[in-house]
Design brief:
475 residues, alpha+beta, Beta Polymerase, domain 2, Hydrophobic Seed Protein, 7-stranded mixed beta sheet, two-stranded antiparallel ribbon, 24 helices, binds adenosine-5'-triphosphate, binds magnesium ion
């Protein structure tokens, strides 16, 4: 069936590309993600154009036409050229034919036809092309029934899936990522081929794996992707710490919950409330140390004492493994993992102001995110129980808001600086200054004094005197 997609390429840029290609007497086509996303009504600013000829030449000529000559980025090794126009990024490449070697996902490339180029694409829905030739402007080229798959929401490889995944194993991650991101199903024999080829993932760089993993994490229901990673056996290879969360052990008739499925529930829960990648990572890692801290005790049954502490300690290793940034994002995730039990613990006991102040102090400006994590962590098969906990949790939120309003601990700065302490007691920097500072902070958090300058000052004088120091008071 003939299908024309002109209505998806109304930007004048596409007509200009068409004219430039015409002038050079080469054929040009939009291909891949842009076409797929246009048909799915997903906004897409990355446009791939394949030309039957020299892509770099067409890109240069287009830039000249657009008055942005010299603003073309050329990747000579790949034979591609990229330029930016308005908020779009357009990449040009000559049509290519690819063949693969066993030990590398980087193919041997030669010039090819449009059909060759479509053959090398990973999924039928990614092999769709739109003709930019003047007389066929907007015509869809769909050699593998990609449109049908789009409608059926199916991921299918154009060629034999075993060869497709073995050639470039990154495609296994991409399949699972698209399934999660778009809510598509992976065709059965494709899924099988992924399981069979799972060990080939070892030839893919960690950075590329992590890119796809992050896209899975950012998808509307990330559990979809993680379950596929689990079922195909990829999870065990790329993320063994998470795989270990799976399973239930039973001793004396007592079992614990399956922490893998619990973690996925927490991740799905949190994804309703945040699209912050790092907060979602905190959900993934909040119970990561449950397997190594698991004990069975006669009276209590299963315990995971200290899993929050050990979990926080595991974060740097996991970030390093995934080549994630070892910066303040990592520290943020660590902090959330460390503190994830604290807000919910406040539900169970009578809440004292000092417990609230301590939590506010430790969480600082991440307190809101911690509460989102903690709320997402309320999971149970029993909806009445969940509702009860959520209601109790509202009280914690309320109490936190009240104490913060009153005591301003969230962005707490010591009311008395170290310099001031040194001046008052004529001290050099050293242990004593630290002790006094610490004691003032403790007194404020405990509630023995209020969080203001005057009370802190009086307290400092007393503490100093107790330590045998003499204040130099001017006035
Ligand atoms: P997104 O931009 O959302 O990540 P995409 O499908 O556009 O998704 P890109 O990496 O931008 O992904 O690639 C553009 C196109 O190149 C794809 O649509 C697909 O046709 C092709 N492609 C990308 N990676 C591969 C691969 N590993 N194997 C085969 N074809 C690929
Ligand atoms: Mg893209």
């Amino acid at each position: 069936m003939h299908k024309n997609l002109q209505k998806h390429i109304t930007n004048k840029l596409f007509t200009i590309i068409s004219d430039v290609a015409e002038k050079h007497q080469v054929q040009a086509f939009i291909i891949g993600g842009f076409v797929r996303d246009a048909l799915l009504n997903r906004p897409c600013k990355d446009i791939d154009v394949v030309v039957l000829g020299n892509g770099i030449e067409i890109a240069k000529s287009l830039a000249k036409q657009l008055g942005i000559e010299g603003q073309v980025t050329i990747f000579k090794n790949f034979g591609t050229a990229m330029l930016k126009y308005e908020d779009m990024e357009i990449e040009f490449v000559g049509a290519r034919k690819e063949s693969y070697r066993k030990d590398s996902r980087k193919p041997i490339v030669e010039n090819g036809t449009l059909a060759d180029d479509q053959n090398r694409r990973d999924f039928t829905i990614n092999a769709l092309a739109i003709n930019l030739q003047r007389e066929f402007f907007g015509d869809l080229l769909d050699p593998f029934k990609g449109i049908e798959d789009l409608n059926k929401k199916v991921l299918r490889t154009p060629l034999d899936p075993t060869i497709t995944y073995s050639d470039d194993p990154l495609r296994m991650m991409r399949a699972i990522r698209f399934a999660s991101q778009l809510g598509f199903e992976i065709e059965k024999k494709s899924l099988q081929a992924i399981s069979e080829n799972k060990n080939r993932i070892s030839i893919v760089s960690m950075e590329r794996i992590t890119d796809e993993l992050n896209k899975i994490i950012l998808s509307p229901l990330p559990s979809v992707g993680f379950k596929l990673l689990f079922e195909t056996g990829l999870l065990e290879i790329i993320f063994p710490q998470m795989q270990k969360l799976y399973g239930v052990e039973i001793i004396n008739g007592k079992g614990h919950k399956d922490n893998f499925f619990h973690t996925l529930k927490v991740l799905d829960n949190i994804s309703v409330n945040t699209s912050n990648l790092w907060l979602r990572w905190a959900a993934i890692l909040h119970d990561i140390a449950k397997p190594p801290t698991k004990r069975f005790e006669e009276i209590q049954g299963w315990t995971f004492h200290g899993h929050e502490d050990k979990g926080a300690k595991m974060v740097p290793g996991i970030f390093n493994q995934f080549k994630l940034p070892l910066n303040e994002k990592m520290k943020y995730v660590q902090k959330l993992v460390l503190l994830h039990l604290r807000p919910i613990a406040l539900v169970k006991e009578t809440i004292t102001d000092s417990a609230i102040r301590r939590l506010l102090f430790e969480a600082g400006e991440d307190i809101d995110d911690l509460l989102i994590l903690c709320e997402a962590d309320i999971t149970s098969k029993n909806p009445i129980k969940v509702q009860k906990y959520l209601d109790n949790f509202k009280l914690v939120r309320q109490k936190l808001a009240e104490v913060e309003e009153k005591d301003k601990i969230r962005n707490w700065q010591p009311p008395i600086t170290g310099e001031e302490i040194m001046k008052i007691f004529d001290l050099k920097p050293g242990r004593e200054v630290g002790i006094i500072k610490n004691n003032i902070r403790e007194a404020i958090l405990e509630g023995s004094i209020h969080n203001n300058y005057q009370e802190a000052f009086d307290y400092m004088i007393e503490e100093g005197k107790k330590m045998g120091l003499k204040p130099i008071l001017s006035c």
